[in-house]
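Dear Dr. K.,

Following up on our conversation at the group meeting, I've run the structure prediction for Sugar phosphate transporter domain-containing protein from Sorghum bicolor. I'm pasting the input sequence below exactly as I used it, so you can double-check it against your construct before we proceed with anything downstream. Let me know if the numbering doesn't match what you have in your notebook.
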Amino acid sequence: MMMQRGAAAAGTTSVSGASSWTRAATRGLASRHVGVASSSSSFFGPRGATAAAQRLPLLRVRGGDGRLRPLSLLSDSGGKNGEVAKAVAAAAAASVPADDASAAAVTGDRGGIAATAQLGAMIVAWYLLNIYFNIYNKQVLGALPLPLPYTITAFQLAFGSLLIFLMWATRLHPVPRLSAAQLGKIAPLAVGHMLGTVFTNMSLGKVAVSFTHTIKASEPFFTVVLSALFLGEVPSLPVLGSLVPIVGGVALASFTEVSFNWTGFWSAMASNLTNQSRNVLSKKLLAGDKDVMDDINLFSVITVLSFLLSCPLMFFAEGIKFTPGYLQSTGLNLQELCVRAALAGLCFHGYQKLSYLILSRVSPVTHSVANCVKRVVVIVSSVLFFSTPISPVNALGTGAALAGVFLYSRLTRTKKPKDA
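The predicted structure tokens came back this morning:
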């Protein structure tokens, strides 16, 4: 499946986690996951998370002035949330390029329309779960007296690991057979995945959600640099040119960001570095591996290994602080806090799983373009939900960075592959 054709496209995928680097490691898996797609999209859909969250009392979160303020959750109607829902639906419709939609229609008009509708529904669920994850996660990180990014990361990965074992136990997906050699190759990818999640949570705990995702839009820059250093892939001049608005836009947004914090800035940058290092390592370590597992199991094994690796780090850095007695002494509702963290973990695993399922149905370039649109939706929805102050210059910088990412995605589409 296009090990080198997907190299440039892999750089535009996000932290949260799921990226097109698994497309480079697996071949011809679209048909294998058609059955899994429908069950997973319903299992991980946002409707259940919304219903559970609406029964919770308000979670008091520290605002920019240091005072605690209540935050309500997204609902299906009313005010800003109605605008967010409309924006998600419109963005998802725009995320399905004509070439992938028409490809689905090969089997017939009726089947093509059904396949396109199902793909659109999966993209809407992907976007919504990402939005809910960022909101729940920011609420939890903002409510804690300390951000505790290692503990939150371990909790999210543990929740995902539990769902993965349930998937294997119920035979929704075959259990992988791993060799010691395969584990040795996957372990570095799990380290990158775990550290990327830690740094993202660290950034979200310090700065606004919109600013974190603006910085993470600079992922293509790290992809180009790391691919040139370790894979010997020299980018074309147009691709290099697309990096200019990305870097310039991130710099402009950083200079004018109200919530700017150096820890939050460098944490988001470190997340870009670790995530794209994982992508490059996947190409280097898994290239030509005939025994590599399918993308769902690869993602699952990486998640489980990431959880096991995060536990020692959590206990060493934050284990003493994250205790019921310590949290109750701060006046927080421990049960409510754990429920919100669980919902964030559900959304975290759900949107990553859906990203892999969507990737198995579309081309890597289409996936990267949809991922770029998803970042726009997340930024806009977080600005609306949290009423984040944003100046015209800041908006210009964010827009320039996202336009550069979109241009980068389109340029990789026309890049000629090195092998026939």
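Two things stood out to me. The longest helix spans residues 109-143. The chain is about 70% helix and 0% strand.

Best regards,
J.T.
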